[in-house]
Amino acid sequence: MGDGWDNVRRTRIVAAGLILCCLLHGVAVAGDDAAPPAGAAEPAGARSPVRPPPAEPVPAADLERALQRGVEYLVQHQNRDGSWGSPALQGGIPIFAGIGSHHSFGVAVTAMSVSALIESGDKSEAVVKAIERGEAHLIQQLPRVRRDDPMLIYNVWTHAYGIQALVRMHHRLPESAERRQQIRALIQGQYDKLTKYESAQGGWGYYDFDGGTQRPASSSTSFVNAAVLIAMHEAKEIGSPPPEKILKRALEMTKAQRLPDGSYLYGYYLHEMPTHAINNPGGSLGRSQACALALRVWGDKRETDELLEQWLDRLITRNGWLSLGRKKPIPHESFFAVAGYFFYFGHYYAGLCVDQLPTAKQDFYKQHLTHILLDLQEADGSWFDYPFYSYHKPYGTAFAIMTLNSCRAEPIRSATGGLK
Asked: Which of 128, 202, 220, 384 is the least crowded, having the fewest Cβ atoms under 10 Å away?
């Protein structure tokens, strides 16, 4: 993911100005969508202020055509060594990253691309070959990924998405017992890394600006925890459960960052500033879905269907708001300190949240998410939300393909190991 943010004062001024403008023009802002007071009368047939109307159904052929164009983009832009992306600066600004960071970025994006191609269900020769080359790269490189320097721990992202790719690889060729054993050993290796790089607070962060200690003094970060916890749950389902100690601590720290309105702190370091813009519903718009899902799959009863629906409604109704940060080159420069890289991240986990709902409620959200993604596909078949060296199109496209898989009438899950 992207760089940190430090210009708190500027963000507050800009966000306050936008809120005032919205109020003067009668536009809904984050935080004004609370339910009516108890006993208040509602017009017959009224819906929640944030619940969108039904979307026009998208023909299945249109969804598959967009998905196929994304698959073709990944196949055509795979590197010779089987990876995707590179440190070449193609738009945006260079964030704080060393050689080891770029190794982590490249392996993480490769893991996401492999997962996306497997989830696409495309069995053509070109796609299978791309998957095989990507898998070979992951098998070789995942054990080599590590912390770049005392301050930079971007590798935690690689361990999360590496585990998810390994789960899908485990399901892709079920007849090979030896291969499955190798994959489970690789998953255990990623658990070992996550144990080594666990924050002293519990959970994970990707910067340690405080101590640079062997046990990272990084702040536990809600959405990093969510990505890791979801990957761990998928691995548990194939018989590779995570270490109980780090699981328990990550769950506790993610719960500690949950606010009463369903928003999540950006990181625990903001626990004394819970009303800061980035922690408000507008700032949590692409984060709450992942965090809620992570806690739910590990048994948290507070993350009900109703709460999942509420945050899916918000994501759809406020999509233009979240999209204001899309493609902006400076992290967190948009309103409510939203960074562009939360856009497809948020939609991917929203798609997984839809899978959790009763079948009768799923199509409503699938149609909305499909419309959003189809409208934003680039001319070359890719998707991207944040100009990030040359990793942005592969990771954005991978997220979009996997989200569109969730939007299918019958998502490809059982054969890939994704959440049920």
From this structure: 128
